[in-house]
Structure formats: structure tokens, C-alpha cells
Amino acid sequence: MQNTAETGPDAPIDLTPLLDDPYPAYAALREAGPVHRINGTDGNPAWLVTRYEDVRSALADPRFSLDKRNATPGGYRGFALPPALDANLLNMDPPDHTRVRRLVVKAFTPGRVEALREPVRRVADELLDAMARRGSADLIADYAGPLPITVICDLLGIPQHDRRDFLAWSDALITPDPARPELMKQAVGAMLEFYTGLIAAKRAEPADDLLSDLIAVRDADGDRLTEDELTSLAFLILFAGYENTVHLIGNAVLTLLDHPDQLRALRHNPAELPAAVEEFLRYDGPSPLAIRRFPTEDVEIGGVRIPAGESVLLSIASANRDAARFPHPDTLDRGRELSGHLALGHGIHRCLGAPLARLEAVTALEALLDRFPGLRLGVPRDELRHRRALRARGLISLPVAW
């Protein structure tokens, strides 16, 4: 791959290898240089940062803003959402980010998340019961997808009959069809209508759920949460809570099927699953890129000057495979020291729902390995396909049998 940090934006990196076989492509980029000029996910030029120390440092650097108002005028188009869905934590800097995050972080403390362990296991067992009656399954559609949707919808208080629609909308946003751009617009419109109606219903009849609690905060003290922030926060919790966890579970199961010796070891000693999940996150995590950032002043990374306002993409996938931080990074090693992996972020923007994602993954794998000791792929390995997206690393389907 060409190091376009030196040759400029007229010689963009071909992104195809990053979509089709990302880890060798990222290894080549790390070797070529720390920062590369690419055509970003919105079609405009962007800077791609690939080495661990640079990515980790930038994630915690307050000069890198998430607020799109700090982008160069006309230089960033990005993902267009209406204001009522766009006023979320992924577009905020302090002090607004601090204010909004503080209102919801209490729902994801380790203690509150631990109280969800039994309900999560109950959902997992119910899904596995349905799979067992069939003898084979698509692990994404039948297990890895429904589990986090059920958990996060229960947490927010979303009615059962609305959940299937949400899955379809999410798929349209995660992997848009270039031939049918209207589907994404339709999904965004449907989501906005859904959240607006749900919040109105919860206002009329509050319940014992997170969304009702957030509405109460909004209505009691509008200075703490605007109406757009309330709607956007509900959207982000549900969308991110589904997308990251379904890919984490699916990628972890495929990793174990690719490493049958480690699959056997974990089946015999499930107490090692929490540590194993950390290695799965590092080895093949669900979020290859951190959310785009915009320097508020000119910055230098690895000797490369990045002008203020230009789009910067921090490669989590590349950083977590950097041999300078993780020796033999392409080897699955559950015994390695993993405290510094970046799969769930770093700094003030680290993943809000990380404790819940970890618990869901551990519980899902524990239940699955216990129920199906003969779990195996249901199709040849080379028939599996990942979603072709820079921002999400996950399987389209994962047929399994036992």
C-alpha cells in the first residue's frame, strides 16, 4: 500500500483491502508510516492514523474534537441525521459531553450491570432453546442479534412489537446499499418517528426503565437535557448497544471456531471467559475505527502535520494489531497482557456501555458453549462474508450446526 501522507491527497489509498482483508492491509500501512491520506467514509480526504501509541494518544487528546462545527467548512459531509438524532455523545465535546454523559452513566455502573447477569442469561437460554429445536441456525440472526436487542430494549423500556422494525432500520444504517440510498433515508425517518412517539408515550405513562428516568430529568430541569439531546441519547444507546455487541459476539464465536483448541479449553474452564473476551476484542473487535475527529489546531502525529479542521480517523483495528504494543499480534493469545487494548475506546469518549457489552459477550459465550459442545460451522469457511464497512467489523451471517 502507498504511504499517501507523503504523496498527498492526489494519490489516495485504495480502501478495498481494508474492507476485504483488513489486518494484513493495516500491517502494511503501519510499516509504511504512522499517518496516511485516504478518501474518507464520506468521500472526502481524511487522515488515517494506524500505530498504537499515536492512536491511544489522539483518543485522549482534547485538541481532537468530535463536534462537526470544528470541521473545515465544506470539507466534511459525513452521516446526515436530523437534529433530533444528531445531538448525541458522538458529536459532543466538553462541557456538553460531560453534562449529558453524567446523566446516563449511572445506568452502566458495574454494580447495575452485574444485576443484569441473570436476565441476560435467561434471554440467552431462551434463544438457545429455540435454536436447539431446529438443529442448525444462523448465529447472527438467531442469537448474537436478538440477545443485545432484547437486553437494551428491556433497559430502555421499548415494547416487544417494535423490536423487529428496529433491526431492519439498523441494518440499513450499518451497511447501506449504494444502489438504493433511499433506504437509509427511510430508516432514519422511521427511527425519528419511532423515538418521538415512544418518548411521548413514556411521558404519558412513565415506567420503571431508563428512558422514563431520562424523560423525568428532561422535564424537571430542561437545562440538564434538551429535547433533541433526549431523543438522540435514546437513539445512541439503542443503536450502539445493538451494533457493537452483535458484532462482538459473532466475531468471538467465529474466532473460537477457527481455534478449536481454545474452544475446547474455554468449554472446560468457562471461568476464563472474561479474560478471553478481552483478547477477542483486541484480536477482531467490532469497531475498526473510532468516530471521526477534527483538530482544533494544527497537530503533528509521527512527523506528519495535520491542519486544523480536517477529518482524522483513528484505526482501533490497526492499533490493536501493532506489534510494538502486542507481541505476535496476529496470534490469538488469551494469556497476553491486555489492559491497554483500545477496542472499547480510551479517554473521556470510551464506550459508555462497555461493562454491559462485556457481560453480554461473556454470558452469551458461556451459555452457547455449555449448550452445544459439538458446535461447528454449518458452511465452508470461505463462504462467510463480513459486512463491507470501515466503521463496523461483523459477519453478515454465521451458519452453525452441532
Can you offer a commentary on this structure?
With 402 residues, this protein is mainly α. Helices cover 50% and strands 8% of the residues. The chain contains 18 helices and ten strands. The protein has helices at 4-7, 16-20, 22-32, 52-59, 83-86, 96-104, 110-114, 117-132, 139-144, 146-156, 163-174, 182-204, 210-220, 227-258, 260-268, 273-284, 316-319, 354-371; strands spanning 35-39, 45-49, 64-65, 136-138, 294-295, 299-301, 304-306, 312-314, 376-377, 399-401. The strands form four sheets. The protein has a three-stranded mixed β-sheet. A hairpin with a 5-residue loop joins strand 1 (35-39) and strand 2. Helix 8 packs antiparallel against helix 10 (146-156). It is globular, with a radius of gyration of 21 Å. The two termini are 41 Å apart. Residues 1-10 have low confidence and may be disordered.
Main sheet characteristics: 3 strands, mixed
- How many distinct helices? 18
What is the residue-mean pLDDT, rounded to a whole number? 90
Strand content: 5-15%
User: Structural class, please?
Assistant: mainly alpha
> Residue ranges: pLDDT <50 for 5 or more in a row?
1-10
Q: Termini separation (Å)?
A: 41 Å
Overall shape: it is globular
* Strands, count: 10
The amount of helix comes to: 40-55%
> H/E element string?
HHHEEHEHHHHEHHHHHHHHEEEEHHEE
Oligomer: single chain
Strand order of the largest sheet: 1-2-8
- Report the radius of gyration as a whole number of Å: 21 Å
